[in-house]
Design goal:
Number of strands: 4
Radius of gyration: 17 Å
Largest sheet: 4 strands, antiparallel
Number of helices: 2
Order of helices and strands: HHEEEE
Structural class: mainly beta
Distance between the termini: 25 Å
Strand content: 35-45%
Length: about 100
Amino acid sequence: MEQYNSETYYGFYIPDHIISTMDDETDLAVASHNMLNIFDGAVLTVAVTYSDGSSFRKEYELSTARLAQDENGTITQEEWTGGDEGAFVYGIVAREKK
């Protein structure tokens, strides 16, 4: 719980017991997927309290997917559908929970 700071990077914590399963023999791509997969099916809750005392809360369902990269290498929020062209990264997608 802290005041938002636009200069701070916010992210997800991956528990040590997940990281410790990797060793020198672990394929890095597989290890990355395994680490991110702990968020698959989780719910992220964002709660905001404004200076006037009002508040807002929203929930997001998390899933992991291959995210497309555009021609400049920028990661999009669109899932990669394959094909001969383009590139992807494995990442976390948040969809608003209804």
